[in-house]
UniProtKB/TrEMBL annotation:
<feature type="binding site">
    <location>
        <position position="88"/>
    </location>
    <ligand>
        <name>Mg(2+)</name>
    </ligand>
</feature>
<keyword id="KW-0378">Hydrolase</keyword>
<feature type="binding site">
    <location>
        <position position="213"/>
    </location>
    <ligand>
        <name>Mg(2+)</name>
    </ligand>
</feature>
<feature type="binding site">
    <location>
        <position position="87"/>
    </location>
    <ligand>
        <name>Mg(2+)</name>
    </ligand>
</feature>
<dbReference type="GO" id="GO:0046872">
    <property type="term" value="F:metal ion binding"/>
</dbReference>
<dbReference type="InterPro" id="IPR020550">
    <property type="entry name" value="Inositol_monophosphatase_CS"/>
</dbReference>
<keyword id="KW-0479">Metal-binding</keyword>
<keyword id="KW-0460">Magnesium</keyword>
<dbReference type="GO" id="GO:0046854">
    <property type="term" value="P:phosphatidylinositol phosphate biosynthetic process"/>
</dbReference>
<protein>
    <recommendedName>
        <fullName>Inositol-1-monophosphatase</fullName>
        <ecNumber>3.1.3.25</ecNumber>
    </recommendedName>
</protein>
<dbReference type="GO" id="GO:0006020">
    <property type="term" value="P:inositol metabolic process"/>
</dbReference>
<dbReference type="InterPro" id="IPR000760">
    <property type="entry name" value="Inositol_monophosphatase-like"/>
</dbReference>
<dbReference type="InterPro" id="IPR020583">
    <property type="entry name" value="Inositol_monoP_metal-BS"/>
</dbReference>
<dbReference type="GO" id="GO:0008934">
    <property type="term" value="F:inositol monophosphate 1-phosphatase activity"/>
</dbReference>
<dbReference type="Pfam" id="PF00459">
    <property type="entry name" value="Inositol_P"/>
</dbReference>
<dbReference type="InterPro" id="IPR022337">
    <property type="entry name" value="Inositol_monophosphatase_SuhB"/>
</dbReference>
<dbReference type="InterPro" id="IPR033942">
    <property type="entry name" value="IMPase"/>
</dbReference>
Length: 262
């Protein structure tokens, strides 16, 4: 049985997803001029965050909040906060690529305890609660069972514009691509993590990531049996700004490769 919090999160994600799908159709139909598309998408993004915030803060007014668009707002209960990316994969959305998602996590005492990622364009709803497994549309998820790097596919990402992390990621790619079946860069970190949980990817890493991109996905991967750590840094992974995860068999080698020259 989903908890009351999970029901609130699912409702918020579906409602925001419906609003985004409507806007996405407009982008796809090119009713939005190339010049105006950027503004249109930021409006769609802000509207989705507003919907989610109304639902979540309406139901739990005392929880804290951090959202990509509206930033951080402490709540009366300092131990709980919502971590929200209303539209992860903004650049894909802007280009009419149906690979973006709503990501909502609930953190309690610095640990993610509930997670929803909604890939509204494909109608795939990923959910996880601590100790309750990871699920997609009611189906239990498990990370892949692959053991060899050479037969495995990994995903990575580069923050918008590359920021300071591009040189490091290019080194990662030079090192890892010859050792694996491939590395993908699909442009939505929440879905990269959801796909690791679903066994579609065998692992994922990224340098220069925000808490709202990865919070929900961290719990999904853990609940599907995967390992998740910061590439470097101490404290909770969600705040580390970098992340590496994989199935338990491949995690040691992936993490060692990524950290070996870090
Ligand atoms: C971005 C995507 C992308 C990742 C970037 C994120 P946004 O989120 O998740 O895959 O590589 O680091 O910032 O900006 O589309 O919400």
């Amino acid at each position: 049985m989903p908890s009351a919090n999970m029901n609130v999160m699912i409702k918020a994600a579906r409602k925001a997803g419906r609003s985004l799908v409507k806007d996405f159709r407009e982008v796809e139909n090119l009713q939005v001029s190339v010049k105006g598309a950027g503004d249109f998408v930021s409006r769609a993004d802000r509207e989705a965050e507003k919907i989610i915030k109304e639902e979540l803060r309406g139901a739990r007014p005392n929880y804290g909040w951090i959202g990509e668009e509206t930033g951080e707002e402490p709540g009366e209960d300092p131990t709980r906060r919502w971590i929200v990316d209303p539209l992860d994969g903004t650049t894909n959305f802007l280009h009419g690529l149906p690979h973006w998602a709503v990501s909502i996590a609930l953190e309690h005492k610095s640990e993610i305890v509930a997670a929803v990622i909604f890939d509204a364009a494909k109608d795939e709803l990923y959910t996880a609660e601590k100790g309750g497994g990871a699920w997609m549309n009611g189906q239990r998820l498990r990370v892949s069972g692959r053991r060899q790097m050479i037969e495995s596919i990994f995903a990575t990402g580069v923050p918008f514009g590359g920021r300071n992390t591009l040189p490091a990621t290019l080194k990662d790619l030079a090192r890892l691509m010859p050792l694996t079946a491939g590395v993908r860069r699909f442009g939505a970190a929440s879905l990269d993590l959801a796909y690791v949980a679903a066994g579609r990817y065998d692992g994922y890493w990224e340098r220069g990531i925000h808490s709202w991109d990865v919070a929900a996905g961290i719990l999904l991967v853990k609940e599907a049996g995967g390992f998740v750590e910061a590439i470097r840094g101490e404290g909770p992974v969600v705040d580390a700004g970098n992340i590496v995860c994989a199935n338990p068999q491949l995690f040691p080698e992936l993490a060692t490769q990524i950290r070996s020259w870090d």
